């Protein structure tokens, strides 16, 4: 039996329950295009007792939200979120939050925007169905509750999946990006308000961007990856989407794209930067990666393949070039 993470256990660890709140987002987190980040990573190995209900699958995404580390994973029976709490300079496994069950047992890459976590769960066999769920992470009580909103997707083979989901809170709406199988296309949605608890809250399809039809003439290079994770960010210069992948040559690459909402679907996304990070052990961007603030520093975070018996992840601080 899978036990939900325990509030009593958490309270025993910490004097006060730490509220989950938004980390500061940044749009262009890396200083110069086409470079390898030669930084010393902080490496973590966290013991997680094996669970008989988690058979098969692997980790798919990772986010560090204040003092709480959250990973997404798939298994034969269901997708899940794994939760860890920072205690001193280390992390302690708290427990699991079960997501959708088979056939939607493939929980993918995800993103947290302020107090909302957006994660997709797809059918990895049929590849025609998926859901995207919004989960309130403003408190551990709300995190244990059912998702506040569910977007259901159904359609063409491989192009109705949801393996990489990104979420950005804007002035009066959420922008949602849903990467399909191998991120060949990205579907964009816009919400009608900022309250997923409201009865009329909904996402409306805005557009689909197709990597195979994109005009890449002004890209810094023509490479486009099978992104395991997508992250939406913004600053005064615009909106950006970053894809994290493990390239065919084994490098762990973050590709930064600038979005032009007024452009046509062929040129609305322009690649402006590309970076590689030297991961070690079984940590790779193939298993999950994203942006984080760690000890007050903008960082890239990446995770290993398995939840148990040991979860591995690394944090790469980014020095300079951050807005």
Helix content: under 10%
Largest sheet: 5 strands, mixed
Number of strands: 21
Shape: globular
Mean pLDDT: 88
Distance between the termini: 45 Å
What Rg, in angstroms, do the CA atoms define? 18 Å
Label the CATH architecture.
Answer: 6 Propeller
User: Which ranges are low-confidence, i.e. pLDDT below 50, for 5 or more consecutive residues?
Assistant: 1-34
* Number of contiguous helices: 2
N to C succession of SSEs:
HEEEEEEEEEHEEEEEEEEEEEE
Widest β-sheet, arrangement of strands: 1-18-17-16-15
Fold-level CATH name: Neuraminidase
CATH class call: Mainly Beta
Report the sheet-strand fraction. over 45%
- Count of separate structural domains: 1
Q: Structural class per helix/strand content?
A: mainly beta
